[in-house]
Amino acid sequence: MLAAALFAVLFALGASAGPDPCVAIAGKKWVSPREARACMFSFPVDPELKANIIQVVNNTLPFHTSVNYQILAPPPFQNDVHEDIAADLARIFQMSYDSDFEFHLDLYRSFRRLNDGHCTVFNFCYDSLYISYLPTPLVLLTASDGSQSVHIAPEAFSVASAEFPDQIEFWQDSLPGNLKGKLASLSGAKVLQINGKDPLIAVNENAVTTGSYQSFGTRQNSFFSSYSRGAKGWAYIMGNFALQIHPLNDFVELTIQRIDNSLPETLSIPYRSRFGSAAKNFTDGESYRENNCVSVAGTNGYDVYDLASVSEHTHAMPPVAYFQQQPLISNQDRRRPINVMLDGTPLSDVELPEESHPTTAALNESYSVAQFYLLPDNITGVLALGSFSAGNFSVFMASLLDGLQELKALGATHLIVDVTNNGGGYICIAHWLHRILIGPKATTEPQAGLDTCTRASTMAQLIVEKINKGADPKELLSYHPSQWKNSSNVPYSVETHWLRPTVDLTINGHQDAFSPRLGAECQPFEMAPPDHGLFAPENIAILSNGRCGSSCSLFSITMSKHEGVKTVVLGGHKDIPQQYCGVVGGQSTHFAEIDTEIKSTHLKTHILAPPDL
Ligand SMILES: *[C@@H]1O[C@H](CO)[C@@H](O)[C@H](O)[C@H]1NC(C)=O
Ligand SMILES: *[C@@H]1O[C@H](CO)[C@@H](O)[C@H](O)[C@H]1NC(C)=O
Ligand SMILES: *[C@@H]1O[C@H](CO)[C@@H](O)[C@H](O)[C@H]1NC(C)=O
Ligand SMILES: *[C@@H]1O[C@H](CO)[C@@H](O)[C@H](O)[C@H]1NC(C)=O
Ligand SMILES: *[C@@H]1O[C@H](CO)[C@@H](O)[C@H](O)[C@H]1NC(C)=O
Ligand SMILES: *[C@@H]1O[C@H](CO)[C@@H](O)[C@H](O)[C@H]1NC(C)=O
């Protein structure tokens, strides 16, 4: 398993000129996709900013572990991952674009084709600035004879009317003929065609572009609606059909067969674009860019030994947090090893309708993203775990132990861990849950996880050299030797160059270098784990829709491969293998954090250092 780097890239202010379509949408919560597009496409490319973004991305990539592997992934993912991102950057650098948004879309889509939730580029200027919705999320249903068909979700109207009370009339009025005002009657309808074609064609087209997961089946599943357990409650995931992060589609044409109707009907439903929940108000094109497109505290890194920069940065929520698929965590806890997916869609703020909530009450030991239930058979416990991060690390850790112990006290002998749409989080919570479920044994002590290594690029090696010579006396940096242990689980001393001797490899024809194998990251834990496993491995099942990534896949894979725990993927197309593994990796990071390492070790002027955005 390899430590991965990821980038959230935001960028600096550019001037705009000419007629201003942004004025028409300023201050409106809902607009048509066409209006939003007109504004977003109105900014010309600023050659200097374009070069700056490409240089930042290009010089940050050597910190990401997988780029050479992604040129052609080893089986079974060779058909899914075959993108040479360095070649993409060279192409994009040469290319001229009619607008800055077009440049961004090319960059964004190139990274999405890596199908890697850790190697991505996001830009606050465009991504989720206007999110486009349909009131008709879709589901893939399987009949008792095994046949599958796409349907408008039975709960569609209940979700849309609760979440979009200020738009539902618009959609009601947009329906043709005798369907006008009868949006509710579409819920549950069988979808025969999407834009005149078999629905599976639209599902697969989305799977090719949506990114984040290597597995094709998992990317297919992103088209459909689903649920997740958030910090504050149950969230509804609209799916990529009914929620798009760019306002690029105006409407969809559906041929459907409504419940209790024998005849197919064809209708078109308009997308509506809602101003993003993290977007900043504007009055015209210039203020749009000033408020949404400039770098802010946290976009770039800072020198942790420079008091003025420290005070500016420690209280700011880093912009990347908006795209991390985990609840907001405290700045204090941000220093813990984290492995989390990033996505252009912020963690959904659409609520799961009441009728879809669990019907039994959660145990009192539940906390935030971790909810415990005892099923009516009185022997099966359920841990619904929406993330491996929660607001307070220590409280979260304790609640996992308390909740599982309470389930046992109530008589549970079997456990289902539901990690549907769990995008990862704290690596040491994944190790902790594994360790307390299974108990002490060779696969859980001193590490209930996987050995790892990290990429040892020239810049990374220089950072460690500087630290060896005393550049980080307070041990604040991620590259400090004291943050790591060798494969015998002995911490490195400050003078050890822990990336050396490098393991030199040729990957897809490219020279590459990695650190030696690294050991445990998490133990000893800050609270004592019990002496015995809480559940027998054969009585545990890990359940998801395949969308379990980063620390979540670290947990699922080790539980399955080391402990023989069952994994179950619900949903998915029956002809496509369903994977439970998501995107693994070790610690994941992003441009600002890497820049902090570089600035704090005074390497910013090095030719390989990424400039500031
Ligand atoms: C942005 O505009 C909306 C709608 O006009 C308003 O409700 C909101 O308070 C404004 N937000 C800020 C931060 O000014
Ligand atoms: C990216 O960096 C490499 C190594 O410094 C360099 O050879 C290449 O030309 C750069 N690519 C772009 C598009 O700037
Ligand atoms: C759970 O908490 C509620 C509210 O504080 C309390 O009424 C109830 O007795 C508690 N249940 C148990 C089993 O302790
Ligand atoms: C489960 O426990 C409850 C409360 O003790 C009891 O009413 C119920 O009958 C039990 N169910 C089964 C299947 O044993
Ligand atoms: C987490 O909660 C504990 C116990 O309530 C508290 O002492 C600690 O300061 C909290 N940590 C954070 C980061 O809020
Ligand atoms: C780890 O470090 C210890 C202490 O320096 C050393 O004895 C041990 O051989 C090292 N293990 C490996 C695999 O290098």
From TrEMBL:
- List the InterPro entries: ClpP/crotonase-like_dom_sf, S41A_metabolite_peptidase
UniProt keyword terms in alphabetical order = Signal
Q: Kindly indicate where the leader peptide sits in this chain.
A: 1-17
Please tell me whether the keyword NAD is annotated for this protein. no
Superkingdom to which the source organism belongs: Eukaryota
Q: What is this protein called?
A: Tail specific protease domain-containing protein
